[in-house]
Amino acid sequence: MIKKTFFFMICLCFSLIDHAFSQNLKAQWIANSTVADTPNTWLAFRKVVQLKNKPTNAIARIAADSKYWLFINGEMVVFEGGLKRGPNPSGTYYDEIDFSKWLKKGENIIAIKVWYFGKQGFSHHSSEKAGLLFDGYIDQTPVYSDSTWEVSVLQAYATAARPFPNYRLPESSILYDARKELMNWNVDPLMAMGKAVTLGESGAKPWNKLSLRPIPMFKDFGVKKYVGKRTILSGELADTIICELPYNAQITPLFKIKTENAGMRVVVFTDNYLTYNGGDTYLRSEYITKKGLQAYESLGWLNGHKVYYVVPKGIKVLGLYYRETGYDTSFSGSFNCSDDFFNRFWEKAKRTLYLNMRDTYMDCPDRERAQWTGDAVNQSAQAFYALSPSSYQLSKKWIHEMVDWQKPNGILFSPVPAGNWNKELPDQCLATIGYYGLWNYYHYTGDIETLKYAYLPAKKYLELWEPDENGLMKFRGGDWTWGDWGDEKDIQLIFHSFYYLALKGMLHSANVLGKVADADKYSDQMKIFKRAFNQKYWTGECYRDPAYKGKTDDRVQALAVVAGLADQEKYNAVLNVLKQEEHASPYMEKYVMEALFLMNEPDFALARQKKRFSQMVNNETFTTLWEGWNFNDPKYGGGTINHSWSGGGLAVLSQYLCGVSPLKAGYQLFQVKPQVGEMKYASATVPTISGTIKTSFVNKDSSLKLTVLVPGATSAVIVLPTTCKEVKLNGRKVWVNGKYTEEANRTFRQNEIDGSLSFAVPAGKWNIKALK
């Protein structure tokens, strides 16, 4: 309860702060008088403030297009502030920063370096105008950006020559020429700089209304030396030093060198630029030396497993380093079992998930850095089991951005934010408003305000689909009739299944929000749709569109099960299809695995998952999961080595094998319903807003031992099969010879869930022993 209250108090405080700052209209957007707003422009801003005493409070609202680094008296306060632009098609994000501890009595220098992308991208909507807004208070004294600030263009920064990064990325490959460096501008107030020009107050075009950053500031893990293997490839003109990172990470590269030769070019890139780029050009860094001792950090983050430094002859390398940064969350969840394959899968999935979290969820951290909404559905589900509750805020941001970018005609699209993309992928958007998207977010977080906020836009989108004469829907292919990577896509049924899942999610949402008429409508639609779907598409052996001529689509069978379109009498036939057909991409394989657990086939669910993912899990080169079944493969959109949509099985293992899932929103009540199959041992730690849940089981031929730790603010339902001969709960018999005992009826018995044994337990540690 404490965590939950804190989560919502933070949201309330943000709204109050937003209101307070909105009253100060003195702060102005500022820039340099000569800046041409060209892509990849870097600006230095400075303000000197005199203080009679060391202050106790100092808060600033800072906005920029596009990123900024804040220094107070020469010390780094913020490393990469700002979010890629686009809370909506017109607005800009701002940060709120407490900088009090860096201030002192007397002269204080506020210095801000701004990186203006100046390009549109799949994750960024450029305002097409470089600028900075600083709106703050030091104790009771306002400090704000205006014409008294100083500013200069940092001429040392330029854009590296071809090959340029692909059109999806708003960032440029940075070239830094140390010969043009503006020395000590952030610590020396006498260093000459130009006068800032004002461009309008907060809310002025083209930045428009400001929205408070809804996620934490990025976590800075600090500057570190490379500790892995180092390889030096000696060349005639330059040496290439290859440094290994501990895992695929978001990093900025650093080096310290010495040379007597100015004008020499050092090039830095990762293996994801050189080899594993997912089919398109990625980012790199270049540096032009000055004479003497010098150190440099390239501030545009890269990712990969290896960092390459191409260093010309005549340069002495004194040190090579990296700084990891990323989304501020903790790896609070865990999973372990007796089959090490799934331990390695879970760890790779977790690493891939974290690598694809920053300004937004990303499909990949290299080729696109784009918030494809179908990917985000899978990613948010993983975050609920792998990461601390601070990750919820990124899921909330995703949902808000999806509905705030909705077109006037009701169409949703992704990725958003976006400056050069506006195409609808209906199946992904239906997944977003449906059972595994919006509803799943509410169910795991208990954030009813976001559910309320998104409900009407989701309803408007769903109303774009019109019923046909049979009770199904008229097909809407959208701008990109995608369905999935790979072949043998029964596209009509893929779309129909996601439409039904959208109805299912909206029905649950309408019930929670008290939308009685809507709930009745969705319920009636689902009944009609399910009957029509089975009448038209069930052949007796599988689901198929009569017009579809390809091989039977395994995706469709799985979606029918997880959506609830397929009843139990069809499970054997569906199972036979899933044993024969393997066309789903790693993205869709999550639904296949979940469907098999729902059909009570845990052993085959694990066997298929192991077969399909064996190549990428067993690959020792990569710490992350791939986009497709091969990497660098155009069949899978380019085939990156770090696509988080592939980690959906992480959530399935914790939710179904270990059995942990909420029964009431925000885990006020949850169930532990393990489907152990032949697995000998498994354990899971699940961080929730209501506390940390821990569970483990030991599965023997004649018994099952289950341990559950129920946190203090919750209660749980423990679910076991009725085939158990005897069940003891903390040493007390609660089930004997096919019947609940009197004590169980009096204290623990719960309404049965799916015909299973169910025991309600309060907070505490519970040891269950079941004889088979």
| Shape designation | globular
CATH class of the largest domain: Mainly Alpha
Strand content: 25-35%
The unreliable regions are 8-23
Compose a concise summary of this entry.
Keywords: Hydrolase, Signal. With 772 residues, the protein is of the alpha+beta class.
If you had to describe this structure to a student in words, what would you say it looks like?
This protein is about 25% helix and about 30% strand. With about 775 residues, the protein is α+β, with helices and mostly antiparallel strands. The strands form five sheets. Strands 11, 12, 15, 16, 17, 18, 19, 20, 21 and 22 form a ten-stranded mixed beta sheet that branches. Helix 7 packs antiparallel against helix 8 (about 450-460) and helix 8 packs across helix 9 (about 490-515). The protein starts with a helix and ends with a strand.
